[in-house]
Amino acid sequence: MKLPGKVAIITGAATGIGQALATAFAGEGAAVAVDYVGPSGASDQTLKQIKAAGGRGIAVAADVSNPSQVAALIDETVRAFGRLDVLVNNAGIEFKHPFLEFPLEQFQKIVAVNLQGPFLCAQAAARQMVQQGAGGRIINISSVHEDLPMPTNAPYCATKGALRMLMRTLAVELAPHKITVNNIGPGAIYTPIDADVEANPAMEAALMAEIPLGRWGHPREVANLAVFLASDEAGYITGSTYFIDGGMLRQSGSL
Ligand code: BGC
Question: What's the CATH code of the domain at 218?
């Protein structure tokens, strides 16, 4: 087991990459707080998978953009499991729309969840880790779009680019406390965030043409990388983004 005795919070873990991370972490011996938004019961499937993996988990409803709900998320985790070792800022939303008509309200919502959320969660988690005095891990699930532009997706790309500099800055600032901070930048992973593309063969074919390996990534593949970065083995790794994208960022088009 790679994460024995660790306690992890994974935000947005009711579905998709977050769910795969929660399940993988539990299977590696971590106790997992499954953060979610939405109706109670939204995270039941994740809790079931954690149990099936032989792990321990709790579900906590918390909107990551809300400071008091974030404080409660940390408190409930520490009350249940006694400490906090790993935070994964996974919760994220996406809304594609042409820039010239992009609604301000949607922009603000994306910034709140994708950027303010990781800021607040990292701050609250790091305070807890500093108080414990044993270091810790902060991992942000970013995107290839922290580097790669995507027309109609400006606010999402802007928040992911901002996550890169949030990560780099926190990596330096929290290093004296032995807290490492890294990003994982997934490409096209088969999850509900891309339901529109998955349901549209033409859009799906266009996306696959951008990926040298020619296929979707699996959430479990992202989880494998996250488990490593969260483990003691990754103690000297901080301040970088690790892309997992089937080569998407290196696609050379018609060359
Ligand atoms: C986005 C997906 C997109 C993928 C590759 C992800 O960050 O959420 O919508 O398919 O990047 O472009």
Answer: 3.40.50.720
Per the domain annotation, does 255 fall within a domain? no
Please give the Cα distance from 65 to 135 (Å, whole number): 25
pLDDT per position as a tens digit, 58-77: 999 999 999 999 999 999 99
* Distance linking the first and last C-alpha atoms of the chain: 44
Q: Quote the pTM value.
A: 0.98
What is the total count of domains within the chain? 1
> Shortest CA distance to 231 belongs to which of 55, 30, 33?
30
Binding site membership of 145 for ligand 1 (Cβ less than 6 Å): yes
Alpha helices in the chain (DSSP H): 16-27, 44-52, 67-81, 104-111, 117-132, 154-174, 195-198, 201-208, 219-230
**Residue 190 is among the residues annotated as catalytic for this protein:** no
pLDDT in tens, 139-157: 999 999 999 999 999 999 9
Atom of ligand 1 nearest to the CA of 92: 8
- Both tokens assigned to 17: 């990459």
CA 58 to the chain's CA centroid: 18
Residues 157 and 141: their CA atoms lie apart, in Å, by: 13
Structural domain including 61 reads: 7-250
